[in-house]
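To whoever is on call:

I kicked off a structure prediction for a single chain this morning and the downstream step that reads the tokens threw a length-mismatch warning. I double-checked the sequence; it's 967 residues and nothing unusual in it as far as I can see. Pasting both halves so you can look.
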Amino acid sequence: MKKLLTWISAITLVASSSVLAISCKTGQVKNENSLFLTNFGNIRIDSKSLLEWNKKWNGISSNNQELINKTNNLLAAGILLAIRDKKLHLPTKNEDGWDSSVNKQIEGLLGNKNSTDTATLYGLANKSLNDLKNNKYKNNPKGWKKHLEETFPGVKKNLTDLENAYKSNFILNDSSNNAFIKLKNLLMFNSTVADSMWQKGIQTTNLDWKTLTNNFANAYPGKKNLDELAKAIKDAFDKANSNWNDAKIVTFTNMVNGLGGINNQSATSSSNGGAGSQQNDNLIITYSSSKDVKNKISGTNSGSGKKGEEWIKEILNRVSSNAQRGSVAFSEWNVSYNYNSQNGPKNFINYNNQKPSSWTEIVKEIPLLENGDLKVDPIKGEYGAISNSQKYAINNYFNSEKPVIFSDLIFKFANNKTATDIEKNLSLKALIPTESSGQDLTTKLIERFQGIQSVLQTYVSNDDKEKETYTAGLSKFDTIFRGEEAKIKANTSTNSSTDYKNWTEWDTKNDHHKINASGKLLTLSDTTYSDTVKFSIYDFLTSNDKKENTWSWKEESSVNKNLESQEFKQALIDGGLSNDEASKIDSAIKQTQDKKHSKDAARLTIYNLAELFKKINQKNSSSGTSSSGSSSSSSSSTTSTSENGENKNSNIYTTLNKDEGIIAFIDGDGLHITKIDGYKLINNKANNESLSSSIDQQQNLNEYIKQTAVLKQIRSLYSSPNASVLVPYLINSTLQISTTSTSMSTSSSGQSNGSKWDWTKKDLDYANSVKNLGVDISLLNKNIKNDYERFLINTSLIDASKTKSFYNIDILSEVSKSIQSGNNASLQSNWLVELFTKILKDKGKALSGSLLSVIVTTDNKTDNDEIEKIFLHQAKNLKVSAIRKLQQSNQKWVNKVKENYKKYSKDASLDKRFIPDQVIDLNSMNDSKKKRYDNLLQSEIFNPEVKAQKNSNGSSSTGDSRVRGDA
């Protein structure tokens, strides 16, 4: 039986196309429809039939995608039949990737043979059968029976058995509703991600204060004053155990939740979990059950400092300024603008992005109650709340595909250079205009380098730590891509020392730069991005341990005489310009007397660019240009050329800001300044502990409640024109990490003039709003342990139809594609076998044999041995196929650069000093003598069980040698 499991595991690793009917190989596989059906038309799975079916399909081949579809469908159908027949029992605990909240739905998924319920497979099969029978074969019963007999030749000739065979075939093979797809939709993701079965949360309802207060008054009639009313409420809760659904209990609990929940009903904070005076400034919205309210009133939950009737009166006074009148104040209720007078937290911002004027403007939705508890959603759960089984799929994808999101700014090549040109000659000519002269060249240089200066000097730098501003995780570099303005600003005046606040938009026509905003994740199997982009980013993340592989901007005061004419021209010549070209540049932007004009700024920027170029010129530093250089770009290098053409994995990229994860490199379309988005979470050294997966049921429930409150508040924000803009800032605020580390010396500071970055007012206002929304965003999908993984998930949840997302990615859709066996991109198509093998355990032993024994009706050793012989070797190959493709892609790049150098170095007109010869070879060692390939595969960055990597030198690993994320 283990051998059979090996075969199933093997074939489920093959990528597949859309599910086809079993008999699709027309003329080659006769009677194949009957292989897995009894003569009564029931589903029958045995090893002999599996072997026969495989032989008829000639085994696994690249053009035989149906094999995996069929196998997954057989397995899923077998599982559902075993569950129906009580041979297989689903786990009741949420562990090992299982979500027990869908047990009942899975147990009822198959249905009975005569079902008309289209929520079941038999119900769908009956609908399909009747549609065909009553349309195409209407009034033609003989034709209908003949069709079934021809389709299922091994089944008895009576109509009942033939129609039974039709239903069985539907469950095994329908392209949209087969057993595998339906089981996948329940456990993982639907093809439309939003329609998936999310983690079960708490049901809520819209809050209508007028209705609520009227119902409350009806529940407590005739109370003449506040004292009587408060006493009646206390008495009701003292007796609540007899009827938790009493209107007296429900209406008061609803009012508590309408004010934000129990923990926020205090004007003091002496015992509120160490929150200090901050409780007066803000609140965190929570959901409280009637049992919570009872505990609060009885004093067993007195964390906020007030008990019993005193606390009840505080609640009533916040709902109505006339609460002293008793019941009538609520039967005749009108909004009381009492937020400030009733000690409303001064910084709190509500769902409408406004400071409340009334305590009844805190939330738009409140939780439903049931028998004293919060009412759990029994069906689909709350969109965005990742279930345990969805987490299983995401974790596998995260670990195996290693997805990265990045922001990419590209400064276009000068002088009409193309990718083909720089394969032959990568010099400063690609970055500095040389084709004009005189005033025209002066203007071109100033205009081009205004933006380059602002980015390299300021945008890539850290904020002054002493003046750090709360920005909801936005960095200065981010403001090029997202936030209120999302553009590059620069000093476009003639004065080189203009303050940031006077900067204006640069390059409005996009002549000099472009933004790479494809919205596609970078992954190991991705083929969208270039090799330079892909391997530079992964190498920076996992193997960058060269302390000297950094660059920072140098101000005019620290460059000594390098801006003087002779030294400046020599730097340009060393970088590949001719004597004449260097002289033209020098003349076009001559230094002014006070060195404070736009020409001086351009000159300083070109000097800095030349220094940066040395770090990313794709030449080994030992064979590149020397400081002495040469007098002509066509002359030989004064440095030995013996190592030209030899790859040293050097000078491909350099680090501009280690704290923010910003690097620079040159690709076929220009100079890239690239930021790893969310890098602060990867690089958060203070937050790298592994988390225990042991969480008790009550803790789980508490997390669900808190998470539902967060998701409902986000939904409330979407519904407000004033507040929908806050959602991306709210999600992004997880990047606002307070760390003890200071800016690394290798990162450019950008603070030499003492000026503070001029954040836009709206960005700061929005950041301040999300800080005070009463929403603890850290609670969203807290069950995802890896901080970076959770950032990718939560970012993907933003509804781009309702607000403008900061990052145009969707990792959930990618995961959904990866688990669909009918998709050529299926990277986890074996998840069904692995999940059930992992979760179904018997006294510590995986129930692989027991699982298959309830699915497969026979166990013929000869057949199993033959199956194993056919597929065991293939299983090993398939297991590493994705990694092989990565290696092959990398080595193809290595060889391309090598052959390119060999080809062009024979051209006497080209200077070997500027023919690229460097590449990142995954088979090479980094400075720590660790193989880059191993560092990448074992990086803790992509370990779902670790919050953040233990160190930030890019070489940490888990020690886990698995090549993929499978169990």
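Update from on-call: the warning came from a stale cache, not from the record. Cleared it. Sanity check on the structure: The two ends are 19 Å apart (CA to CA).
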